[in-house]
Amino acid sequence: MASSLALTACGGADMEAASSGGDATVAEQSQGAVADRRIIVYLTPSQQLYGVKDGKSTLIAERASAPSVSPDGSQVVFAKLPSSWNVGEPVKSAELHLYKASNGKTERLTTGHDDQSPSWTPDGKSILFQSKLRSGLASFWRVKANGKNLMQVTNRSTSLATDPAYVPAPVSNTPVQWGPNQRRIIVYLAPQTTTTTEVRVMKLDAQDNVASAYSLGQGTSPAWTEEGNVRFQREENGQLVDVEVSVQ
User: Fold this and answer.
1) pLDDT tens column, 143-177
2) 33-50 b/e (C-beta count within 10 Å ≥ 16 → b)
3) Dist. CA 153–CA 213, nearest whole Å
4) pLDDT(15) > 90
């Protein structure tokens, strides 16, 4: 779970307004939201989540993590840590909450587990997140934006990390990245050993179920290109080289 500060913005809003609530760095920026639905949120080093409107910061939640703005810019989902948690402590439990810009209210979506790292599906109808306590294996889960239809996405047919069907979860604090074409492919880093990481691609079908999952090899810092390829870095002969792989 991230403990570093983060800023998420929609609609290309003025970043100077966001800085009025404290030090923050840009973590993500999405374009295309209409002006009256624009949300700017930022997370402070003490895990306080703020929203910015008309140049004024408003506290949304204490002990928050990993805010993710909906594709239309009208809602923010985030992980809420328990009131007993203090900065620097390991995260043993977390719940997903949803903040709506239209009424300024926050609703709880999940409860009782370690639900972390939420990410909206491209259609804005569902939220993909990670949990280990729900099944015993670190896996992806999905829930509708209204809190209904909770469903395990990966590792539904296995209970062992050694099973060939096991799909590793991302490295801690690594957000998923939806591909530009059909926006159904996720790139993430999965741990191989204590010193190396692996770039993996997971393709989802129209119902956001796993259609395929495979590795592109060892690497780091993966990102999509406009052409729908994956570009990442790999160490070869003691030097980092850029690698680009087509996954179409």
Assistant:
1) 999 999 999 998 888 888 888 888 888 877 677 88
2) beeeebbbbbbbeebbbb
3) 12
4) no
- pTM: predicted TM-score of the whole model, two decimal places: 0.79
Residues 6+ apart with CB under 8 A from 111: 95
- The residue count for the chain: 248
The per-residue pLDDT for 84 is: 83
The pLDDT score that the predictor gives to residue 173 is: 67
Half-sphere CA count of 54, side-chain side, radius 13 A: 2
Q: Can you tell me the distance from the alpha carbon of 43 to that of 46, in angstroms, rounded to the nearest whole number? A: 8
List, in sequence order, every residue forming a beta bridge with 76; answer none if it has no partner: 69, 99
Q: How far is C-alpha 65 from the chain's CA centre?
A: 10
Q: Calculate the alpha carbon distances from 29 to 68, 127, 177, 199, 213 in Å.
A: 10, 18, 13, 23, 27
For Cα atoms 85, 106, 207, give the angle at the middle one, nearest 5 degrees: 100
| 110 band by pLDDT with thresholds 50, 70 and 90 | very high
CA distances from 79 to 107, 180, 242 (A): 12, 26, 33
